[in-house]
Amino acid sequence: MARITATQKLEVRRKLLEAAAQHFSEAGLDRASVDAISVAAGFAKGTLYNYFPSKQALFGAVIEEASRRAAERYREVEVEETTRAHLLALARADLEVMREEEDFMKVLVREAMSFRPESYALVTQHLGPYVLEVEAALARGVERGEIRGDRPTPQLALLFVGLLGLMYGQHWGSAGAWPALDEVPELVVTSFLDGAGAEGSRPAKGTKR
Amino acid sequence: MARITATQKLEVRRKLLEAAAQHFSEAGLDRASVDAISVAAGFAKGTLYNYFPSKQALFGAVIEEASRRAAERYREVEVEETTRAHLLALARADLEVMREEEDFMKVLVREAMSFRPESYALVTQHLGPYVLEVEAALARGVERGEIRGDRPTPQLALLFVGLLGLMYGQHWGSAGAWPALDEVPELVVTSFLDGAGAEGSRPAKGTKR
Amino acid sequence: MARITATQKLEVRRKLLEAAAQHFSEAGLDRASVDAISVAAGFAKGTLYNYFPSKQALFGAVIEEASRRAAERYREVEVEETTRAHLLALARADLEVMREEEDFMKVLVREAMSFRPESYALVTQHLGPYVLEVEAALARGVERGEIRGDRPTPQLALLFVGLLGLMYGQHWGSAGAWPALDEVPELVVTSFLDGAGAEGSRPAKGTKR
Amino acid sequence: MARITATQKLEVRRKLLEAAAQHFSEAGLDRASVDAISVAAGFAKGTLYNYFPSKQALFGAVIEEASRRAAERYREVEVEETTRAHLLALARADLEVMREEEDFMKVLVREAMSFRPESYALVTQHLGPYVLEVEAALARGVERGEIRGDRPTPQLALLFVGLLGLMYGQHWGSAGAWPALDEVPELVVTSFLDGAGAEGSRPAKGTKR
DNA sequence: AATGAATGAGAATTCATTCAT
DNA sequence: AATGAATGAATTCTCATTCAT
Q: Would you state the torsion angle of the CA atoms of residues D186, C205, C156, D175, taken in this order, to the nearest 10 degrees?
């Protein structure tokens, strides 16, 4: 009767995480209700506590799951060899993940944007694979003279990823008014590479302030 | 205790806002307790409710105060008439406020970066004065041909402000590792205006993808 | 400057009682707010407390005032000499008071209908003059053979007054749907004297059960 | 504590209602405290809220329970087919409930006699079953010519029930002095059917004023 | 393993009362 | 005498967590 297989347990866990992701993405950690999550997953409250020791822990697990999925996806990406093309491809890969796992990603992005040192570590750690890809693309760009060499590529990579999150956030915050998700990759790449200055208005390299 | 002067009332209000800013910046809107705030300000719970009708309203007032202070501060600054100089001045003014009122600014930035449609309205409404200044500076830049005219200035202004928040957040999230607060204005202005592309790597105008 | 005359003090007291009557009649003792009452009277909260030591005391004073006014009015009534005519006149006198001092009367009736021994004493004491008039009219009716002599007139009088209150209450409770205030006197007198039984259905006197 | 049987749940509900009835009957809706009620019932605050969504709802449930019990009780009674006998039976059934569930009944009567439009709706709605029985008895009485047909039976029914409440209230208010509870049914039925007028003193039908 | 009733700390909010001015 | 800011006890309601079944 009882004797639940490991697969079945994982299935329950998956359902709970899925429901949790959705609720957390809508309501945030504090406002989301454990009861609502468990019921949405098709279980009673007690069951949730058999799988996760606390609401906080469940939240952490959702974040982990989200970053795990994102990282997996990014590893599959293949692209041609221009920096612009590469960054565009990376941004599009991100958007793709985004679309398929929007709930998880919302939680992830929001947590990343909460700027709490604890989360920061967690998020950057799991976002690592992706950030490293960006970094690598940028480094190759520097070698090719396509990317300015006066700033450390790790920092540029963080900026790029931050811009992505910023645009997603802007999208959600404005309830889709601007930008549309489709525009995001190009918007981010353009902003990141070209800036807002008009053609020729850029100061000579090395100029201070 | 009747017949309190207007000055005294403002003083009480100031203390309450100050305490609220600190608590909200640490705990966020949901976790902060009205009781803790009033006590920290040196008053009883009821007093807070004599000044603000609800926790939400208090939160709104904190945000409004923060953005008012920021806007005021930067209006005092005098700058030469270049877009770059102007944006730099705006960013520095913001940083200056930031330093003196870190609690207020943390609340503001975190809320802005929470990307909840509800907050979005609240924040943009209260952030208005500052964003409008940025927008005006950009509009003048477009006229002078210093800013690319192919994107609406309101969107560019949001991007600029977003970058600023992003950098503050990066600073807090990395526990000060990078960037240092001092670098933020230039970092933001450079990223915003020039982008990360190397000199001459920018595609001709109108080029797609 | 200060030096307020006794008349002025009474005037303030009157205003406070008036406002209190209105608020208590709408909201009841618990729901009425001291602040609302004082402001409605044109004063600040503190002033009210200079005249009445507590909300309870104010409520008591309103009840006293209401009964005092009612008693005064009832003493002026004059009527012709039939029981039915007398009762009708008494009921109409009551209605008249009712109309001119509806707020006070509402409080009074509701308090009377709360059936708390404390209020009961207070109310019946002040309602005394009126009830005594009713009682006297009934006693004369018994002598004339118009009123059944098998029940003590004081009890019949209480029943009559109770019926009046019941009908007022029904009027307020149904938001005026039924009965209209104008109908009340006749309704009460008919119910009281004739009952609901059809002509001739009354059992022989002295019949038990 | 899961897997509680339906019987056990009903038992908890019963205890809560019982405690609530007692507290409401002593303190009224406003003054009664949810906390006190739950503790008196032997449970924690939260448990009460598992059974009733709000204080108001609990109050409504108490009233409903009271009127349900009254209606049930009197339906068991068998009576000969006279209006007088029927009304007497109804009044006695009510009194019987009254005695065994005085707390519930006090709440009911006091609320009914508060004459607030809000309560009015609540009470008449919940008092429905009982009032409808009275109404039906009266309607049959009209058909048999035992009840005067010149007044709508719903109004007569309200009057009857009002008289009943009035007498209970008189009993409580006078601290038992008059009437004794035992006398109430006959007192009410006699007052209601026969009135206080002496035999033959009733004016001819249709007579005005 | 799943359940969901019970719990009770904690939250926001109200408001009668006080008292310095 | 009038004021109204300050107070803080009290209230209703929520919800994460526990645990007997």
A: -40
Tokens of D187: 């007192």
- pLDDT over threshold 80, residue B183: yes
In this complex, is the C-beta atom of B118 within 8 Å of any C-beta atom belonging to chain A? no
Residues facing C147 on adjacent strands: D197
Query: In this complex, do D172 and C115 lie within 8 Å of one another by their Cβ atoms?
Result: yes
The answer to whether C110 faces chain D, any CB pair under 8 Å, is yes
Please judge whether A166 and B166 are an interchain contact, meaning their C-beta atoms are less than 8 angstroms apart.
yes
Residues 95-124 of B with CB under 7 A from strand F: none
Would the pLDDT of C104 be above 60? Answer: yes
Q: Quick check: is C40 in a domain? A: no
Confidence of residue D3 (pLDDT cuts 50, 70, 90): low
Helices (H) and strands (E) in chain C, counts: 9, 0
Q: Which domain holds residue A84?
A: 55-194
Q: Which residues of A touch B185 (CB under 8 A)?
A: none
CA D114, CA D120: separation in Å to the nearest integer? 8
Using C1' positions and the CA of A56, the closest nucleotide is: F16
Query: What is the per-residue pLDDT across A100-157, written as a single tens digit (0 to 9) for each?
Result: 888 888 888 888 887 777 777 767 776 777 888 899 999 999 999 999 999 999 999 9
* Nucleotide nearest residue B8, measured CA to C1': F5
Spatial CA neighbour of D104 closest among D13, D12, D22, D16? D22
Instruction: Give residue C140's pLDDT band: very low, low, confident or very high (50, 70, 90).
Output: very high
Q: List the Cα angle A114/B162/B139 in 5-degree steps.
A: 165
Q: For C1 and F15, how far is CA from C1' in angstroms?
A: 59
Output the distance from C17 CA to F10 C1' rounded to whole Å.
27
Contacts C190 to D, Cβ<8 Å:
195
* Number of domains composing chain C: 1
Nearest protein residue to nucleotide E3 (CA to C1' distance) is D2
Instruction: Tell me the two tokens of residue C190.
Output: 């008919």
At B93-109, the pLDDT tens digits run: 889 888 888 888 888 88
For chain A (length 209 residues), average pLDDT per consecutive 10?
72 96 90 96 96 94 84 74 91 88 84 77 74 92 95 94 92 89 96 88 51
C27: CB within 7 A of chain E nucleic strand? no
The closest of B171, B176, B186, B191 to A159, measured between CA atoms, is B191
Residue with CA nearest C1' of nucleotide F1: C2
Which nucleotide is nearest, taking the CA of residue D48 and each C1'?
A: E6
CB D8 within 7 Å, strand F: no
Contact assessment for residue D137 and residue D83, using Cβ atoms and an 8 Å cutoff: yes
D169 lies in a domain? yes
- Is residue D93 a part of any domain in this protein? yes
Which pLDDT score, from 0 to 100, does residue C129 have?
77
CA atoms within 13 A on the CB side of B189: 24
3-state secondary structure of C197: strand
> If you average pLDDT over residues D41-63, what whole number do you get?
94
What CATH number corresponds to the domain at position C164? 1.10.357.10
B123 CA: distance to closest CA in chain A (Å):
10
pLDDT category at C111 given cuts 50, 70, 90 is confident
Residues C195, D191: C-beta atoms closer than 8 Å: yes
Q: B200: Cβ under 7 Å from strand E?
A: no
- For residue C8, tell me if it sits in a domain: no
**This prediction's pTM:** 0.83
Q: Considering only CA atoms, name the residue closest to the C1' of nucleotide E17.
A: C54
